[in-house]
Amino acid sequence: RVKMSAEEILVRAVELGKDFCLYFDELECDALCQSRTLHRVLRNVNSQLLVVRPDLNVAAFENVTDQEVQTGKGMHFNIHCYKTTTPLAGLPVAFSVQVEDKSYYMCCERECGEMIIRFKEGEVPKEIPGESNIIFFQKTFTSCCSKAFKFEYSMERGMFLAFEEKGYLRKLILKKLSEDEVDETMKM
């Protein structure tokens, strides 16, 4: 059983019929509407921070000094939270980051049959009318670890943000996992 508040479901009555039944206008699925923005750094299980380097087209978890954190180039994220009518999927969020004087948003694209994380120049929209390749569902990492999260890609169930070691890099990727599996590479 799911409890819902009036804030989560908006309906508009059109008329009260002669049979005392309430009739509703044809309703469409609500768009995702941005409700608030959080400012955070994203840290993995190795206490490394996610750093975006658009010039190299890469986002990776790196060891960062306190001085580098203060300058914050490419590591201070805006997590844009959206309202939704399907709260069971998790909190819909989009990510953006400032590098130099430019804003970049995170999205997913299919390339050679594989899902790739990209950071494109631009702003995240205030409203999203339907599905979007920028939306992730924020979920608690485990029931006993409420301060850590995992992020599931909204357009492909079971695909989560994670890191993968490639040489000296711990690159941000999408990783396929079942909902009940625990994988420390997804913990943020």
UniProtKB/TrEMBL annotation:
Keyword tRNA-binding carried by entry? no
What is the annotated localization of this protein? Cytoplasm; Secreted
Q: Which CDD domains match?
A: beta-trefoil_IL18
**Which sequence ranges form a coiled-coil region, renumbered to this chain?**
none
**Main localization of the protein?**
cytoplasm
Keywords (alphabetical) are: Cytokine, Cytoplasm, Secreted
Q: Which domain of life is it from?
A: Eukaryota
Annotated signal sequence range: none
GO BP of this protein:
cellular response to lipopolysaccharide; cytokine-mediated signaling pathway; immune response; inflammatory response; positive regulation of cytokine production
* Gene3D superfamilies referenced in this protein's UniProt entry, alphabetically: 2.80.10.50
Q: Name one GO molecular function term.
A: cytokine activity
Q: Which residues cross the membrane?
A: none
Report the GO terms under cellular component.
Answer: cytoplasm; extracellular space
> Which InterPro entries does the UniProt entry name for this protein?
IL-18 (IPR015529), IL-1_fam (IPR000975), IL1/FGF (IPR008996)
Tell me how this protein assembles: Forms a ternary complex with ligand-binding receptor subunit IL18R1 and signaling receptor subunit IL18RAP at the plasma membrane. Mature IL18 first binds to IL18R1 forming a low affinity binary complex, which then interacts with IL18RAP to form a high affinity ternary complex that signals inside the cell. Interacts with cargo receptor TMED10; the interaction mediates the translocation from the cytoplasm into the ERGIC (endoplasmic reticulum-Golgi intermediate compartment) and thereby secretion.
Family label: Belongs to the IL-1 family.
- Protein name per the record: Interleukin-18
Q: Which organism is it from?
A: Polioptila caerulea
